[in-house]
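Fold this sequence, please.
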Amino acid sequence: MSNYLAIATVTSALRRLIHVGLQNATWNFSYDFAVTTTPPDVARSPSLEALGQINVFLYHVGPSAAWRNEPLPQQGFPPLALDLRYLLTAYAPDNDGIEAHRILGRSLGVLHDHAVLSGAELAAALENSDVHQQVERIRLTPLTTAVEEMSSLWSSFQKPYNLSVAWQASVVLIESTRAARAPLPALTRGGTGASSAEKGVVVMPQIGPVAPGIDWVAPPARQTSVRLGETLKIGGHLLAGAHVRLVVNQSRWTSSAYLEPASVTARDVSVAIPSGGSAEADWPAGPYSISVGVTRELGEPEFVTNELPFTLAPAIVSITPAAGTVTAQVSPKVWPGQRVSLIVGERLVKPEPFAAKTDTLQFSLDGLSPGKYRLRLRVDGVDSLVVDKTTTPPSFVGPELEVS
């Protein structure tokens, strides 16, 4: 997710992108130019009249319809998902229309060829912003704007119309800062004598699909998340073939990971999540997505199914209490920039700062009342597992801390 600086960061990144594009134009401009972000009624100030100019004005901020009800594989309040609409207006020295069209054409060409803002560009655009870490990339697309709408927009500026083009940046996800409680999960439903009628609806489709696809992803032992070294099971249809592989993606990776399945049938695939060695450093806890690549016959093209989410849970390997603090050995290693909390009962405690990947975290527990506390580690919204669901009824597992 990203913080409240996300909107300013996108505007700054667009300004830098267009400025570099104008500097690197095939046919150099014979004058200096500026890229501004002011309202159109004050954009062309006297100090800029001798320059070429592109004004990038954010004229509309609205909720993203595609993300408004999007479920995310994490806990807490949903993010604020926004679409940003910009108005691009070109000016040239002496109000030369041809030169203004050159500037506008070059700027639109830069945006057309640069449809996605990279993480590096967003990180460099504005200090202390973390929009480059959000799970969804920010895409740039042109907007079709009716003449009436554009005329109405310029009328509100009380300025004569100047040729303008609308462009959209989507989607910006601003993380909620509302405090969330973290109660322990319920261990049973309807008591220990729950009847079979409480298991839910069973769907039995009668029409078979014609292409491979996946319908569900199941961690082992009826858990909500999988851990390093455990086996993930994926169910679907038409999954068997001459060659089958799993395609895994994570927002902090720069490329996909490919895994060979442990077993394959037409209806399900099992795959072991790597463990030990490089997996401890390269597979961070948090949300992932997975799809299945199926090659039905050797020599035929590979068919990649739809993606489904799953979460990789962190684990507390050991704890070392001390006066007012606790040191936790964790797996896998935590990356800089990840959102980390130790949940002590229902209290969320942030770790001491760290600058590199680490498997050792220190937490200050000052002010904690005496008592026995169940410990959970939360990384990027995913909790370590504290319930053994293979027992009847389920039971709590994992470390506890006794404060006297």
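The domain at 315-403 is CATH 2.60.40 (Immunoglobulin-like). The longest helix spans residues 6-23.
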